[in-house]
Amino acid sequence: MPGQYSLLKESWNMVLMYALALIMIFVLTFHLLLVSPLTGRTFDETLTYSFVLHNLTYYRIVFGILLYAAVIHGMNGLRIVLIEWLHVRRYQWAVNLLIVVLIAVLLALGTYTLIVL
Amino acid sequence: MVEENKRYKAGILRSLWPHGFNIERYTYTLHRITGVILALYLIAHVFEIFHVALGPAAWQQTLQELGSLGIFEKIGLWIIAGSALYHGANGLRLILNEAFGMLLGKPVLPEYPYMPTSLSRSQKIAIYILTAIVVILWIWAGLYLLEGLGIV
């Protein structure tokens, strides 16, 4: 168990990744089903403004959970890949900073989209 | 021995080429590549969906710009669909492996020729089954995406 290590060590990082991945398996499957043939529409028909707006407002909480889980899981995954490529302290510091900024921007944009609709 | 050393010191590009390793290394490499594809798509997707909040005209313009890519838009979405299917299915296998200790062989003392016990029979079966499911769903996704173009 990661409890024997202090907070924010790599082990906790992986527990977070697993937990978010499990959440995403459900909410992302739901999201993909909304644009699948099971809706009785072609793919292009699922992109009409009225259909997208209906989905985003009717399932706002589900999309909110998906947004936060996907952004944190995805950007943290990208960070892990990038910092493992080059073991230089300044590079890794820059990658960490870039990822924190990206997470903040994506969550701000996504949250704004879900709230304003 | 020299050849072995060369293989392990080959650097970034070699890390993307799993040739010469066992099947678990292929799944690992593909998991990383699909993960990067999905992370980059996620950035673009959040910006894309933001245009819904700007109104119908902004959304319509976004669709027109994406539509101007023609079949390349569909091919891109097909690659992303395949990446999501593989990353999700393999991720589920990894959670069973690493978080719950399932599909792994019993630990043994490291003895020559150092066969990994993690690559058990059940592990191999799980990899083959998830690959088959992903391929079937990926073909289905491709047919669905091409439907709108009148190709299928």
Describe the structure.
The complex is a heterodimer of chains A (117) and B (152). By secondary structure, chain A is an all-alpha fold. Helices cover 76% and strands 0% of the residues of chain A. Chain A has 4 helices and no strands. Chain A has helices at residues 10-34, 49-58, 60-85, 89-116. The radius of gyration of chain A is 17 Å and the shape is elongated. The model of chain A has no long low-confidence stretch (mean pLDDT 91). By secondary structure, chain B is an all-alpha fold. Helices cover 72% and strands 0% of the residues of chain B. Chain B contains 6 helices and no strands. In chain B, helix 3 packs across helix 5 (71-98) and helix 5 (71-98) runs antiparallel to helix 6. Chain B is elongated and about 65 Å long. The model of chain B has no long low-confidence stretch (mean pLDDT 88). The chains are: A mainly alpha (117), B mainly alpha (152). At the A-B interface, helix 1, helix 2, helix 3 and helix 4 of A face helix 3, helix 4, helix 5 and helix 6 of B.
In terms of topology, how is this protein built?
The complex is a heterodimer of chains A (117) and B (152).
Chain A: H1 10-34, H2 49-58, H3 60-85, H4 89-116
Helix pairs in contact in A: 1-3, 3-4
Chain B: H1 2-8, H2 12-15, H3 23-53, H4 56-67, H5 71-98, H6 121-147
Supply database-style keywords:
heterodimer, A: 117 residues, mainly alpha, elongated, B: 152 residues, 6 helices
